[in-house]
Amino acid sequence: MSKFLNLPVDAVPSVGKTTATKLKKLNITTVFDLLMHMPKAYQNHTIITPIAKLYPMLQTSVIGEILHINTKQTSHKILECFITDNTAAPLILRFFHFGLNLQQQLKVGKYVKVWGQVRAGFKGHEMTHPEMQIYDDKNNPPKNDNILYSIYPTTAGVSQKQLQKFIKNALIELKKESLTEIFPAELLVEYALNNLYNSLLNIHRATTNNDIENLLEPYNKNKLRFIIEELLSHQLIRLKDNKRNNELPSAKIKFSQSQYDKTLQVFEYLPTDAQTKVINEICNDMNVSPPMIRLLQGDVGSGKTFVAFAAAMQVIKNGFQVAMMVPTEILSEQHYKVFSVWFDKLDISCELLYSSMRVKKKQQVLLDLLNNKIKFIVGTHSLIQKNVEFSNLGLVIIDEQHRFGVSQRADLIKKGKKEQIHPHQLLMSATPIPRTLAQTHYANMNLSVIDELPQGRVPIITAVMSDHKRAQILEKLNHHCTDNKQVYWVCTLITESEHLQNENAEQTYQDLTDNLPNLSIALLHGKIKSIEKDVIMQNFKSGKVDILVATTVIEVGVDVPNASLMIIEDANRFGLSQLHQLRGRVGRGNKQSYCILLYKNPLGENSRARLKIMRETTDGFKIAEEDLKIRGPGELLGTKQKGELELKILDLKRDEKIINSIKKYHIGMLENPATDELLNRWFSHKITYKDI
């Protein structure tokens, strides 16, 4: 077992504390992180090209004798060194940044071996700031070790030479370690993999007999080892946690048909077949001893709120409390208003908890929660504060779960661990999860999918328009806001920024007010007080407001059936999944709804492709797959919380076939004690999943 790989990076000889701090910018904190910092290119310095055969843009090595050294002053000092190999006119080495040490080393009659890119100059071929070795004896040049130079991504304060030196030193130290092979023999044979040390050596210290293009291929057998390692580490750590979870006791929630009948009575619509199927899955999970960990995913407007209500009703019938945690106050208020209407009809106590509540009201809520007078509570991060205690917490519901870190979810779960009883967990996501992401990041959870929308929903028509057509849109808004139709106008910023040209909510509100005097227009953003938000949203829902100018606070949770048009400023600045969430705020009634995505020129190729996808489909799962391709899993999951999915070399879309084929090794590796070494090196500095 190698402990060296899990040590802080400053355990590598020549890496000091200051440098270790700088390396954090490259996401390097451990020795293993350093060795996972992959080369972006390789250079072969062993190929020597005569000066006579040089041409512009060629990257090569040249050996020559120093003929002449010249220092001249223009706007700044320039050092020129002329070298020859007697095959053509001298090659000029040009230095714009140099010190006294370099001037003292460069002497006429000495020899140099340089490597760099050739460029055409006024006096002939030249190289600017080449890598250079200076020596005295023509017949005794620097030794050629036949090693390719690895070129790495760098950061301020850490040079290319330093990174090369750090990684070389790390490999020297690693060779002294006793390394256990954690992969089964069958896996090594199936993928023709090298052992750990040789794989790292062949990546960072590749010899010149290697094909450079092959070395840079993602499925080069040396890189492939670490693709598989990273994939297995993410899957196995969650499967181990799942195994540990299955050994925990929980409250057995017996299904009550009479309670479910009451649930249906307060619901205005018949549940879809998909909702019924998911409710059955949840109830079956909660009726057995291990605590449920289930991820409920469904497209925008698919009816996840009712599913959560139905699950909560069963838990409450069995004598337990339910807590629902949401990421924002406005969403908590929206949920509370919906749930309180339903629960009031059944004479079940429901409360709201958030940070800006009045002290006296908050104290009463906390007391009632502890005394089991409150059966259902919805709140923000306030639910995980130390002074919040439950009497008998049986179910935790996390809405928009990707917005919470692992530790935050764990903190809420801990509040229900009394007398060795662990609460059930229902995590909800309105962002459909691509299958490959579900098989890695959510391997420790059971998945439920609501893949059906309520009847009568009309697909939203999406258009992509340049901001130049803004005036035309304004002209049509007067006509649109008839027949009880309403509009969302979404902006990205609250206040102006010198660095971004985004339209801000306040300026847009003023522009619309000036240009559309006959319409009622309101402004909503995160800095408005809760009481004012309530009034604004109530006015919008009741039809008193025609156009609501808002930031992305309306991304989730707000349901206004008469809102049939959404205009999104600077749509190219949003991710696909967020655009899909925003678009889902319209189309909730039986009217034809529209979404206009505005952009400012020039529009990049990537942005154009994203907006094209939005125009062509309303399928959230297809959009999520495309978003995964474009932005990667860290962004797709939301804010990059500590403990969430951060990939070093694995690409979930590219490596989909491996994800599917590697499952057969799970059982054997779960039972192998050496697997802990794999998990330790990939997760040594991250939060574990044992508490969720």
Could you characterize what this model shows?
This protein starts with 16 loop residues before the first helix and ends in a 9-residue tail after the last helix. The strands form 4 sheets. A 7-stranded mixed sheet has the order 6-7-4-3-2-5-8, with no helix packed on it. It has a 7-stranded parallel sheet with strand order 12-13-11-14-15-10-16, with helices on both faces. Strands 17-22-21-18-20-19 form a 6-stranded parallel sheet, with helices on both faces. By secondary structure, the chain is of the alpha/beta class. Helix 6 packs across helix 8 (221-245) and helix 9 (257-266) crosses helix 11 (304-317). A hairpin with a 6-residue loop joins strand 3 (77-84) and strand 4. The longest helix is centred in the middle third of the chain and has 25 residues, at 221-245. The protein is globular, with a radius of gyration of 31 Å. It folds into 4 domains: 4-42 and 150-217, no CATH class; 47-143, OB fold (Dihydrolipoamide Acetyltransferase, E2P); 257-450, P-loop containing nucleotide triphosphate hydrolases (Rossmann fold, 3-Layer(aba) Sandwich); 461-617, Rossmann fold (3-Layer(aba) Sandwich), CATH 3.40.50. 36% of the residues lie in helices and 17% in strands.
Summarize the structure.
This protein is α/β, with parallel strands linked by helices and 692 residues long.
Please count the beta strands (DSSP E, at least 2 residues each): 22
Largest sheet descriptor: 7 strands, mixed
CATH superfamily of the largest domain: P-loop containing nucleotide triphosphate hydrolases
* CATH class annotation of the largest domain: Alpha Beta
Q: Report strand %.
A: 15-25%
**How would you describe the oligomerization state of the chains in this entry?**
single chain
Low-confidence stretches: 494-502, 635-644, 687-692
**Average residue-wise pLDDT:** 86
The number of domains is: 4
The total count of helices amounts to 25
Order of the strands making up the biggest sheet: 6-7-4-3-2-5-8
CATH topology of the largest domain: Rossmann fold
Share in helix: 25-40%
Structural class of the helix and strand makeup? alpha/beta
